[in-house]
Amino acid sequence: MERRTLLAILLAMIVAILPAIIFPPQPPVSQTGDTTATDTTAAPTRQPPAPAAAIEAPPVTLQRQDTFPADTVIVESPLYRLAFSTRGAKLVGATLKTYRSFSPGDSGPAQLLPQDGDFLAYLLVVGRDTLPLKSWRFEPSSRALEVDSGGAELVWTAAQGPVTVRLVHRFMPQSYLFSVTGQISGVASGALVLIRMGPRLRSVEADSVYDFRSYAVVTKANRTESVNFSSLEPGEREELSGPFDWVAIKSKYFLAAILTRVPDRPRLGGAVAVGGERSGRYANRAYVTASLAAPGGVFEHEVYVGPQEYRRLARIGHDLEDVNPYGWIFRPIIRPFAILIVHILLWMHDTLKLPYGWVLVLFGIAVRVVLWPLNQKAMRSSMAMQAIQPQMKALQERYKKDPQKLQQELMKLYKEHGVNPFGGCLPMLIPMPVLFALFFVFANTIEFRGVPFLWLPDLSRADPYYVIPLIMGLSMYAVTKIGQIGVPPNPQAKMMLYVMPVMFTVLFANFSSGLNLYYAVSNIASIPQQWLIARERMKRQGKSP
């Protein structure tokens, strides 16, 4: 039983420390022009190819790119300030008014798109020709647009030779989602529209390394799939097979996505991601192109540029809230817990009108209260196992040469005394799925970004003073120490009494302070139960508690 308990603890430790092993902290690296709002990085010379999954590699004839000066059209709502260029009608700026940038050198609201970006740059494939609409001059219906309660509409028109393109953007005031409808005339047959995305989002986080390692292109067909930017070598081409409900590029907390949601319109076709240049271990750019059919010269899609707010994305539909999948290889187990926890925490915040820090304190206590009966049963099972240790040792000595008979006699002994041989492991294992799920919740849930609590400046980031990890470690030591009262001396248990709290304190030091807060509160809330069980154990042994 001791070996099983030790094995369970070691397995729990491996899972708990796996994120720190896979993703060790690294010194901040250059963002290649992303560190300030006045991004002046020159556009890369490498141009990604069109999606092979959507085009049967026809010869491409590029028209001459105009060199006219581009003007900027501003669309403003209570949530955002979008900037479009008259060159190609592409999106060149997206400032989120309710989210602050924490990037060194930034100040004010988060601006998500770099100046060298190519987001919403269109290319039109007609027969064997490719028309780079991103170099065309588009005339807007307005140079500045205020999105009021009824929404607003921005119309763009451009023409070269016999081809005319008309784009209509429709905006709503309380949504980061806007629609795009395109009408192409002057082409003999149906066309294919290629939509450029990226090559990146700007990092607006204090720790750019942790942000960069979250950079990925995510697609949704029958299921959500993600390709991390860092998995693509410079120039490496990754073809993504559609059709897709949406294609997105994401950072840790924000995303820019192209969606098709109208049932009678074609879905997005294939997509291609080409690895971009990198200056450190984690890539911060990839050239992504999605394709969309335009039968009869008409195409339609939607655009989302904003935060990864779980409930907001869930309202959009098509599992867009799954753009930041929880759990890595443990996803089938972790994701249901993570989603449930997110719903509970948001509900508690909205219903109780409490700051998220106090919500975590109450949640940590509530988890222990809910698990109290099961923990009580498991702890008493452990006491029962300790009570029959002499009989077990006698059986082991008697049948040491007959393992099969020993197993039969042990099972008989367990049954006679109503003992579950695995029950003592449950107190360690029960809270683990919640703890692991919370790791991913705090690593990816934007609702905790920038939220202070007491001396903690940000629940989603590490405690700069290391106070809460130390409290967590001390509380873990106290729980273990009390749990060993009345237990026969055991060198392994004594070693774990000191090793585990120290190891978890060191490992959790750079985890989010919210996760440390929950774990510390959960440990402290379990002390009364541990003390009551210790008293009961001492009484059974005829000793004074």
Top keywords for this entry?
545 residues; alpha+beta; Beta-galactosidase, Chain A, domain 5; 2 domains; six-stranded antiparallel beta sheet; 35% helix; elongated
Structural account:
It is elongated and about 100 Å long. The protein is of the alpha+beta class and 545 residues long. The chain has helices spanning 2-22, 208-212, 310-316, 331-352, 356-387, 389-398, 403-417, 426-429, 432-444, 467-483, 491-508, 513-540, and strands spanning 72-76, 80-85, 91-100, 109-111, 121-126, 129-131, 139-140, 144-146, 152-160, 163-171, 177-185, 191-197, 216-220, 224-228, 237-240, 246-250, 254-259, 268-275, 286-294, 298-307. It has twelve helices and 20 strands. The chain has a nine-stranded antiparallel β-sheet with strand order 7-9-10-11-20-17-16-13-14, with no helix packed on it. A hairpin with a 3-residue loop joins strand 13 and strand 14 (224-228). Helix 4 (331-352) packs across helix 9, helix 5 (356-387) runs parallel beside helix 12 and helix 6 (389-398) packs antiparallel against helix 7 (403-417). Mean pLDDT is 79; it is low at 1-66. The protein folds into two domains: 2-22 and 339-540, no CATH class; 72-325, Beta-galactosidase, Chain A, domain 5. The two termini are 25 Å apart.
Q: Overall 3D geometry?
A: elongated
CATH architecture of the largest domain: Distorted Sandwich
By secondary-structure content and strand pairing, the structural class works out as alpha+beta
Number of domains: 2
The level of helicity is 25-40%
CATH class of the largest domain: Mainly Beta
Task: Order the strands across the largest sheet as they lie in space.
Answer: 7-9-10-11-20-17-16-13-14
Q: Biggest sheet, open or closed, and with what strands and sense?
A: 9 strands, antiparallel
* First-residue to last-residue Cα separation: 25 Å
Number of strands: 20
DSSP strand content: 15-25%
Weakly predicted, low-confidence segments: 1-66
CATH topology of the largest domain: Beta-galactosidase, Chain A, domain 5
| Rg from alpha-carbon coordinates | 29 Å
Number of helices: 12
Overall pLDDT level: 79
